[in-house]
């Protein structure tokens, strides 16, 4: 079905596509031509904790890119991906949904997943493809202390990391006043 081998970029190269490029050049190609060669690997989301994506997904900096099936189980041995209820249209071609990784007991981590879907004929709520493209990264906390993959420590701060995700969205992402400081 799919390979779980990663692609390593040569030194000096950085994979930094826009949302539109991810949907149109990578996800649309995967959805319409499944055998089309692609530098982004296919992974089973349920088999990998976010820390385990290094070396398996296409990694560029702290961002990890991979395809998974839309109906793939979002639970792993150590936790689960929880949708946070934010959906952003990507032109008329797709949508992006945001998820946060929660440990088994329900505590949020600093891992974020942006899940890209191809939409049908400009509809932003239906996907016609069985594939989604995922971008996973660890949101850096403004407070001292590194985040550990399996840490149970609660890092309290004035602004939660989830609020930081909302504040990091560009003004044009929503039709409302900027949330930036």
UniProtKB/TrEMBL annotation:
Keyword Metal-binding: no
Gene Ontology molecular function terms on file: DNA binding
SUPFAM superfamilies: NAC domain (SSF101941)
Pfam families given in the database record: NAM
Span of domain NAC: 9-139
Keywords: DNA-binding, Nucleus, Transcription, Transcription regulation
Biological processes per GO annotation: regulation of DNA-templated transcription; system development
Keyword Signal: no
Cross-referenced Gene3D superfamilies: NAC domain
Protein name: NAC domain-containing protein
Taxonomic lineage: Eukaryota, Viridiplantae, Streptophyta, Embryophyta, Tracheophyta
């Amino acid at each position: 079905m799919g390979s779980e081998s990663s692609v390593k970029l040569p030194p000096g190269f950085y994979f930094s596509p826009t949302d539109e490029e991810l949907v149109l050049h990578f996800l649309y190609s995967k959805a319409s031509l499944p055998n089309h060669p692609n530098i982004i690997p296919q992974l089973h989301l349920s088999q990998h904790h976010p820390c385990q994506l290094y070396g398996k997904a296409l990694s560029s900096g702290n961002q990890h890119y991979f395809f998974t099936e839309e109906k793939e189980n979002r639970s792993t041995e150590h936790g689960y991906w929880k949708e946070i209820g934010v959906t952003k249209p990507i032109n008329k071609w797709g949508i992006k949904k945001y998820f946060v990784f929660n440990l088994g007991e329900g505590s949020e981590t600093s891992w974020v997943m942006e899940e890209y879907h191809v939409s049908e004929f400009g509809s932003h709520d239906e996907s016609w493809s069985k594939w989604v493209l995922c971008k996973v990264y660890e949101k850096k906390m403004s407070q001292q202390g590194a985040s550990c993959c399996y840490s149970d420590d609660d890092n309290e701060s004035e602004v939660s990391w989830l609020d930081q995700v909302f504040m990091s969205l560009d003004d044009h992402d929503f039709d409302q006043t900027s949330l930036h400081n």
